[in-house]
Amino acid sequence: MSNPANILVVEDEPTIRYTLEAILHFGGCASDSVGTACDALELLKHNGYAGLLIDLGLPDADGAQLIRTIRGVSQIPIMVVSGRSDEKVTALDLGADD
């Protein structure tokens, strides 16, 4: 039996974070979750992830900046999870995959 894909959820709203984790687990994925860009970068240094779900509105950094930082060192798949439809295009231009 293969190991499930491990996804990092970066979302500051606990209800949304827990909902995303539940959906991932239901779909057979493992996940970790954090509420800040700083915590996300720390986990990315020490863990291998199959992909990221990133909110654009984080309390300590703009999600777009987090994407730019990650793209500087990794091509890990990134999916933006945000209600900010006007900023999604910018996130895609910075290297988000969806």
Walk me through what this model shows:
There is one protein chain. With 98 residues, the chain is of the alpha/beta class. The protein is built from 4 helices and 4 strands; from the N terminus they run βαβαβαβα. Strands 2-1-3-4 form a 4-stranded parallel β-sheet, sandwiched between helices. The termini are far apart.
Question: How would you sum up this structure in a few lines?
Answer:
With 98 residues, the chain is an alpha/beta fold. It has helices at residues 14-26, 37-46, 63-71, 85-94, and strands at 6-10, 30-34, 51-54, 78-80.
Structural topology:
Layout: E1 6-10, H1 14-26, E2 30-34, H2 37-46, E3 51-54, H3 63-71, E4 78-80, H4 85-94
Parallel strand pairs: 1-2, 1-3, 3-4
Please describe the structure with a list of short key phrases separated by commas or semicolons.
98 residues, 4 strands, alpha/beta, 4-stranded parallel β-sheet, 43% helix
| Proportion of strand residues | 15-25%
Q: How many DSSP helices?
A: 4
Strand order of the largest sheet: 2-1-3-4
Unreliable stretches: none
Helical proportion?
A: 40-55%
> What is the string of helix and strand elements?
EHEHEHEH
Q: What is the residue-averaged pLDDT?
A: 88
Could you give the count of β-strands?
4
> What overall form do the CA principal axes indicate?
globular
Ends: how far apart? 29 Å
Radius of gyration over C-alpha positions, nearest whole angstrom = 13 Å
**Multimeric status of the protein:** single chain
**Which class best fits the helix and strand makeup?**
alpha/beta
- Please summarize the sheet with the most strands: 4 strands, parallel
